[in-house]
Amino acid sequence: MSMSDPIAAMLTIIRNGQMVNKAFVCTDMSSKKESILSVLKDEGFIQDYEVKEIENNKKRLKIKLKYFQGKPVISNIKRISKPSLRIYKSKNELPKVLGGLGVAIVSTSKGVMTADSARKQNFGGEIICTVE
Hints:
The structure is a single chain. 24% of the residues lie in helices and 36% in strands. With 132 residues, it is an alpha+beta fold. The strands form three sheets. Strands 6, 7, 8, 9 and 10 form a five-stranded antiparallel beta sheet that branches. The model has no long low-confidence stretch (mean pLDDT 94).
């Protein structure tokens, strides 16, 4: 059975893994998921991720979760644009996460990046999720 929103599923896997203090979680591989994880790693929300090869040339992503003083670094991760309702914004309308301690992840014509990076490079795009 195909999944209707694999990115939301990955975000839920990360959220649930941190609630039970797992060291790492795994999910199916896709280039979009890998791009999102790259941004999360660069912004310091996860320790690392790696691509694992399994049988029949399939790949999985192993995500190493990050904790600070026993608490998850990610306090809130929320999917914004969904397959049933895509949310596109121009560079001036890109969201700023309250408090400045989080990021909005945006898919632009130049790839997946934070909303701040997209704003600096004069790009708008699809708002994938927000992370605090």
